[in-house]
Design brief:
The protein is α/β, with parallel strands linked by helices. The chain contains 11 helices and 13 strands.
Length: 294
């Protein structure tokens, strides 16, 4: 199993944050792509590319990944150009992670359109096709419903193209995006379908549902590697999170660090080889890290 630590809020020292996660044994460090996320309170996020470049300079071993670049913010050609540059400056440690975008609040409050779910999925599908060609160093001429590009070449070209990873959550994206990429990360799409994070939907997710998702993506692409997004909570104040999350899959990831780690390892039995670890409570990544050691 691989373990990636995901930065999901603005911090004063992203370089130090990344060095600490690498020292704790995490295989990769990632950064989510939002302006902010609104739940009970507004959480500001750091800029994706600035933060990833800072992390690349601060680490030696960890893989770097957007988790995930927001296709509603970023044109696929700009995303591909940034991915090529990140692969070069990181010494080949970058993965090009792209997602459809799901947060209505940050789009509408910055004067941008928030498309419906079907449109977001089709935009995502077209964007992945463009990105796949460009990061491979090939010219790309594409005419779709949402994008029309004629890209002769982009650079710098790394010795090895970055793998393309996609965040998928709906049945349509699992069937149609998975054949185009090297890795998928499973996201509980029904928990964000309305444009915000629905905690009740997240709390109801079961291991059986995740197994069904793994089976769906493997049927679409037997060779695809599979990750999953998780949230852990350890230390003080876990009781409030446990009440919210109940006894479902995500509820099992809140509590004593050793028990949380056991439940994370159990995901490997479903055909998952990487877990993206975000945290509900400060210090949770550090608390669980010793129990995830290889």
């Amino acid at each position: 199993m691989q373990w990636f630590a995901n930065l999901t809020s603005a911090v004063d020292d992203p370089a130090g944050w990344a060095r600490d996660r690498e020292a704790e044994g995490y295989d990769g460090v990632a950064c989510s792509d939002h302006f902010w996320v609104s739940r009970q309170h507004v959480t500001p996020f750091p800029h994706l590319w600035v933060t990833l470049a800072t992390m690349a300079a601060a680490t030696e071993r960890a893989v770097l990944q957007p988790a995930f670049a927001n296709n509603l913010f970023r044109h696929p050609v700009e995303f591909a150009q940034a991915s090529l540059s990140m692969q070069v400056v990181s010494g080949g440690r970058f993965e090009a992670g792209l997602g459809a975008g799901w947060a209505r609040d940050e789009m509408e409050r910055t004067g941008q359109e928030f498309p419906d779910g079907r449109t977001r999925a089709r935009m995502f599908h077209e964007a992945v096709q463009i990105v796949r060609e460009v990061v491979a160093g090939r010219p790309c001429r594409f005419e779709g419903e949402h994008y029309r590009v004629d890209v002769p070449a982009l650079g710098p070209l790394p010795a090895t193209p970055p793998p393309v990873t996609a965040s998928v959550g709906s049945p349509w994206t699992m069937r149609n995006i998975t054949p185009l990429v090297d890795r998928v990360e499973l996201k509980m799409g029904r928990s964000t379908r309305g444009g915000g994070l629905d905690m009740a939907e997240l709390a109801s997710v079961t291991l059986a549902e995740v197994q069904e998702m793994v089976d769906t993506v493997k049927s679409a692409n037997p060779d695809v590697k599979v990750s999953i997004l998780t949230f852990v909570g350890c230390g003080p104040h876990v009781s409030a999170m446990q009440q919210v999350l109940g006894d479902g899959l995500y509820g099992s990831m809140v509590g004593e660090p050793e028990r949380v780690a056991e439940n994370l390892f159990a995901l490997g039995e479903l055909g998952i080889d990487r877990v993206q670890v975000s945290q509900w409570l400060p210090g949770s990544m550090t608390a669980v890290a010793p129990f995830l050691a290889h």
